[in-house]
Amino acid sequence: MVFSLVLLVMGIALLWKPTPWTPAALFAIPGLFAYFVTSVWLSALLAPLCVRYHDLLHAVQTSMRLMFFITPILWMPGQSGLLAELASLNPMTHYLAVIREPLLYNHWPATSWRVVLLVNAAGIVLGAITYASTRRKIAFWI
Fold this sequence. Notes:
Layout lengths: L1 H12 L14 H25 L1 H16 L12 H8 L1 H15 L4 H25 L3 H4 L1
């Protein structure tokens, strides 16, 4: 529900896009699919672990807040400097780029796509292993 509302607001905001629309903006659609895949493996990975280890939930929440501040959402990274280095090492920056670049700059970010696909591939494997090894025990942990 929240994702749908954010998508609606984003769609309305894109009506005032400063650059003209090109077919490159359609590359944002696979980016949304990558977001969906990421949410599936993150759920399969973190849900059982957070149920088993209750303090892990707080660690995940705190680390997500810290990652937010080193992700260029509220600021734009420069070409060089400490902020640019932090942004390039942050996987969330690449997740943001696979949607932002096609929609705002009519550009397909190849490097960011490589990072997103690599993270998703590793995450799917880790999520499947975690879910398979914990699915029978979850009822006892709750």
